[in-house]
Structure formats: structure tokens, C-alpha cells
Structure prediction request, 202 residues.
Amino acid sequence: MTENQDHRHEIDSQSPEARTEALEDLLVEKGLIDRARIDSLIERFEHDLGPMIGARLIAKAWLEPDFRDRLVADTDQVLQEENVSGAEIEHVEVKANEPGVHNVVVCTLCSCYPWALLGLPPAWYKSPEYRARVVREPRKVLEEMGLPLEADTEIRVWDSSSETRFLVLPERPVGSEHMEIEELTELVTRDSMIGVAKAQAP
Prediction:
């Protein structure tokens, strides 16, 4: 992304981000909402409610091989059994990382994303740069995002759509063999479930 392109993106008054910010400013100015409360709610949804639901599913899959197999084979059925519902998860497929295979998710047309499992999408996920480049040069993009992969690792890019959202099941970190589900859940990040990072080391 060039400097000029980045600048145009930031000042595009018609973008959803700019319009949302303008509306928030107006409501704050009129005393109808409190900005600190909004920030707190967004922070909670982004880092706690959404990502923790997906992270707990991943941790359970690490602990229970049968659950893992079912989660990968029929994600929708497992979500129903686990009473997980919410925005943009009408049909979800889980793609499991394994030695020699790494999965990463993108939405090239817009920003389809399993909100109910991952919380709010990060800004970079919605950016035209990520959406275009990760399909063409996924290895380079992942390296730039702090995830260098071995040259012989196969990278599979999954393009989300309005019909299907994807969730990556990252590999279980070495050293977590004796950890319980709550501890394991803390190792699973939103980015690792998108596929641009690995689960955190214990």
C-alpha cells in the first residue's frame, strides 16, 4: 500500500468507518451516549465475548480428539450442540492446521467474518491490501505479519463468503500437554483462528 493510497483510505468520508465515527461524535455531542461506555463495550466484545467462544471450542478440540473430528467434519452441528449462535455463523467450516499444512482465512469480496466466534474483525482483515495480497502471496503476507513459515509448508487460503465462514483450528502449542481447558483457552488468539498467527506458547 502506498502512502497516497493509505491517506485516501483514511479520509474517505463515505467509508462505513468514517460514517460510524461521525454518528458517534454527534450522539456524544448531544449527550445521548457516553464514549467511554461505548469503548468499554467494544473492547469487551472484541477481546472477551467473541474470541473466547471460538477459543474455548479450539481448546476443547485440543483436549478431545472425538470432538475435534466432529468439529472439523460438521461444524454447524457442533455449534448447535454447544448452543453457539449469533452473527454471521449460519454456516461455518473449521480448517485444521497440522504439520506441513497451514490455513489462513480472507474475504476477498468484502469482509465476511464469523463475528459470534471471533468478536469484531480487526481493521487489517477488512483492508483492501490484505484481501488482495493474501491470496496472491500468502507466505509473504504472513511473514510480514510476524508468522514466517517453512518453505515446504503448504498454505491453504480460504475465501469466506456470505454462504460460508471459516475458522482455523491452530496446532496445539508444545508444552501445553498438561493444561486444562481454561488455561488452553487463554493460548488461543483471534489471529490464530484467522490463521495469521500461531496459538501462544504456554
Q: What stands out?
A: The first strand starts at residue 92 and ends at 96.
